[in-house]
Each structure stands twice: as C-alpha cells, then as structure tokens.
Design brief:
The structure is a homodimer of 213-residue chains. In chain A, 72% of the residues lie in helices and 0% in strands. Chain A has 213 residues and is an all-alpha fold. The first copy, chain A, has 2 domains: 52 residues, Arc Repressor Mutant, subunit A (Orthogonal Bundle); 136 residues, Orthogonal Bundle (Tetracycline Repressor, domain 2), CATH 1.10.357.10.
C-alpha cells in the first residue's frame, strides 16, 4: 500500500516562500502573506510578469504598499516566491490523495487526477510556471526537478514493494511528469471535455502494464 | 510495418512559413528566406522575442533590411513564421526516421530518438516555442496540436495493423507528446548524460507493454 510507504516527501511541510528574515511570525502575518501571494497569482496570471506590477498586486490584495515590502523587496522576489508557492500548492494538493492509492501504479493515477483538478481551479499556474523559464530560470528548473523527485520517490517505493518494475528510474519519472504536464494543459487549461478521472484512468492504463514488474 | 502505413502526414511537404503573397518564387529567394529564418532562430533563441530585433536578424543573416521586408512585415510576423518553420523542421526530421520502424510502437521509439537528436542541435527550439505561449498563443497551440495529430495518426495506423491497442486515442497521443517534450527538455537541452537511443528505449519500453493490444 502506498499509504505507509513514505512515498511522498511532504511530511516536512512546505518551505517558506520568503527568505528566512521575512517569514511571518504571527497568524495574522501568515494570512497577509497568503493574500499577497494569491493576488500575485491573479496579477501575473492575467497580465504576465512584465505587465504585472506591485501596485496591481497590493490593489488586488487590499493591502498597503508597506505590507508588501514587509515580505518582498521587489517584483522579481514576489514572482520567485510565487513559483515556489505554486510548486508547494501542487505538492500539498496531490500528496494526501496519493496516500489513498491501492498500489504504486494507482498512486500515479491519483496523482494525475488530483493534479488535473488543481489545474482546473488554478489555470494561471501554466502561465506563471512557463513564464518562469524567462523570468527566473532557476525557479523554473526547481519546479520540475521537485516534481520529478516526488515521482521518483513514489516509483522507488512501489518497486521496493514489488508493485513496479525494479529498473524504474529517472527517465520514467520524467516521462510520467511530461505526460501529466501536457494532459493538464490539454484537459485542465484548454478544454474540460473529459473528466479528470477519465483522463487519469486512460493514462494510468499505459503505466499499469508499462511499469509492471 | 510502419513503412507503408501512411502513418506520417508529411508527404504533402511543409506549408510555406510565409503568407501566400510572399512565398519566394526562385531558388535564390528560398535560400534568402531560409537564411533569415535561421537568423531569427538564433536571434530570438538568444535574446528572446522582446529583446530580439529585426536589425539583429538581418545583421546575423547578412542581408539588407529590404530583403527582410520582402518576406515579412514585422517582428511579430517573422516570429510566427519561425514557430511554423520549427514545427515543420521537427516534423521533417522525424518523419523519415519513423518510416524505418518495425511496428507501430517502434515508430514512437524512433520518433522520440530522432526528436532528441534534433533538440540537441537546435536547443533554441524550446525557448522559441515556449515564448510563443506569450507572444502568439495560436502558434503555440498549433505547434502542439500538429504534433499530437501526427502521433494520433501513427497510433491509428498501428492499431489498424493490430500492433497497438484499438482504444489508443487522443489522451494517449497527448501523453506520448508530453513524455517526448519533457524528455527532450531534460536529456536534449539541460544535460546530455544519456544517449538519445537510451532515453528513447527506456521510454518506449513503457509503451511497448502499455499500448500492446
């Protein structure tokens, strides 16, 4: 069972999206930071990085400019924090669903299904992550490297339980992530003509046989 | 055999990257247009769309500004033409290799292997296609829709020959394209630590069993 496999590396909780010095220390501060990050997602998702502005973010968030600068020094810094935050949101949305899997292959089905559901509610994630390729290449790479690491960890746990072929490794993890990203683009962002469960079942059927021991 | 399946829809040749009125009518004109498009790939690949310029393109190409305007009206237009041209280059690079496949699944192996080889020689393709998402969404969608169509056609041909499961369809094609795009990013653009043939063989092994009838 995937449940007690430790397959998802989320137990340690999300890293703070801001630098150490600016981590909010109160519940109220954490709520303000959350509001600013959500406003940044809306601002950059709608206008893109170059057209988006700090004042656009604070207006959407309903906070004073000073509150923004309590947490971030610049537009670049809030954008980087937003990419890390979105990576963390995907991970935290997917992880509890994956724990319900009946086996290692089923974990990938639930991972894709819950990712598709997340994407439909946060369509701006594609624009933001994709723009990171141009605005901050390191954030872009970290986002995908982190996702691949989580898939590799799940595959290794499934292989250790004899549910997945023993040679499943990095290439397989990148292949699975690529499937998920483009199925998310097509069936999450562009058109919702199939249910997430249908898309995930069809894709998982490839893996069910393709990754069998 | 994939060879006589008509599985790749390339026999009609690439569409002209420019609008009808501006298609070169002489061999010399075709060479000039090719030179301009290659220079545009270098310019936009290195500087991005916003920093890239028409004068940067003509300097790289070693052609006069007037030659540029013989074929394109604007920076937007040459960028759109470049995206179409790169889609066509990928297709024309992959198609003859796929014809050597021993069956429908092997066609996907050769498709990925030749795509990885193409990417290593044209690393700028990722930046250009990805930037199209922001510069010209229609070109971006057309690029991926075209790639998916070619995969679907190959899967259908393989299914008709009894080599691929009969229900292989759109979801499977998007899954395969996503695999290819991200394996190309990781093993083509970012790092060349595995040979294209090794990456393609590992990924194809999933499909060999996963798409069997």
């Amino acid at each position: 069972m995937a449940k007690d496999s430790g397959a998802d590396a989320t137990a340690e909780g999300p890293p703070s999206p801001t630098s150490e010095a600016k981590t909010p220390r109160t519940e109220r501060g954490r709520r303000t930071l959350r509001t600013i990050l959500d406003a940044a997602a809306a601002e950059f998702g709608e206008k893109g990085f170059h057209e988006g502005s700090i004042s656009g973010i604070t207006t959407r968030a309903g906070v004073a400019l000073g509150s923004f600068y309590t947490y971030f020094d610049s537009k670049d810094e809030v954008f980087r924090a937003l990419v890390r935050d979105m990576s963390g949101q995907v991970r935290d949305h997917v992880a509890p669903r994956v724990r319900d899997a009946v086996d290692g292959i089923d974990a990938e089905r639930l991972g894709l299904e819950s990712f598709l559901e997340f994407v439909r509610r946060h369509k701006e994630i594609y624009r933001i992550i994709d723009e990171a390729e141009f605005v901050d290449q390191a954030s872009y790479r970290d986002h995908y490297a982190g996702a691949v690491d989580r898939i590799r960890t799940r595959l290794a746990a499934g292989a250790a339980r004899g549910e997945i072929r023993a040679d499943a490794g990095e290439v397989h993890a990148w292949a699975i992530m690529g499937m998920n990203v483009f199925l998310g683009l097509r069936y999450g962002v562009w058109q919702e003509d199939l249910a997430p469960s249908e898309v995930a079942a069809a894709a998982n059927d490839i893996l069910r046989r393709g990754l069998a021991p």
